[in-house]
Design a protein that fits this description.
- The chain is mainly α and 255 residues long.
- It has one domain (3-249): ABC transporter involved in vitamin B12 uptake, BtuC (Orthogonal Bundle).
- It contains ten helices and no strands.
- Helix 1 (3-35) packs across helix 8 (181-194) and helix 2 (40-57) packs antiparallel against helix 3.
- The radius of gyration is 18 Å and the shape is globular.
- The relative contact order is 0.16.
- Residues 1-6 have low confidence and may be disordered.
Length: 255
Amino acid sequence: MSSASIDFGLLWPALAAGLLVTATHAPLGMQVLARGIVFIDLAVAQIAGLGVVLADWLGYAPHGAAVQAAAFGAALGGAVVLGWTERRWPEVQEAVIGVSFVVAANAAILLLAANPGGAEHLKDLLVGQILWVDLATLKWVALAYAAVLGAWFGLGGRLGRFGFYVLFACAVTVSVQLVGLYLVFATLIVPALATRNFRRGRLAASYVLGALGYAGGLALSLLRDLPTGPVIVCTMTALGVLLFTLGARAPARPS
């Protein structure tokens, strides 16, 4: 087998994973930006990661049903609490989100302290292992994301605050185990921020940016033998800055 075919065999499942994450996170990221709760994805993703670490600490098999239930339960609980604090103390919501992230991150570190592979496990949660995604994983991820998108586009504003947080928890629970916390944050925020000045076609532009970020980052990481997750984050951000600059320079359309 040629090296090119080996590279393509690694590339296409990872690219499919990136496109799936982009499909759900682009519209959710716009809502996060509109609500002014930019760091909620970091907090909820970290809380979901804490659920994964806790299940591992309790001895459950990696990627099993118990781990998924622990991750979703933790993310949903964190999202519900943050939804309540947003309603109760909106003026300090960003501070509450920040504290939640720090506590969840340090609790995970404490649980992993006695684990010989704890450092590698923590790295996987942060950076992800997108190159090792398999077809079986992609199938159930696609089903989960289809349900999230169906609820998002089908119900829209009728979801309310609580519904949004539930959907957000579902999406982040899947994504953080698929691509890692850093890529979850980048895919949510970079396309939404880069297209914030777009009057038309904002969602389409966000999808294109996310797709190009994953495709370009994956190709560059394989060509240069660099860590995949960080390269994708930097590639998507660079493309986002370019798109934002072009959008800011474009003349406003008459209303």
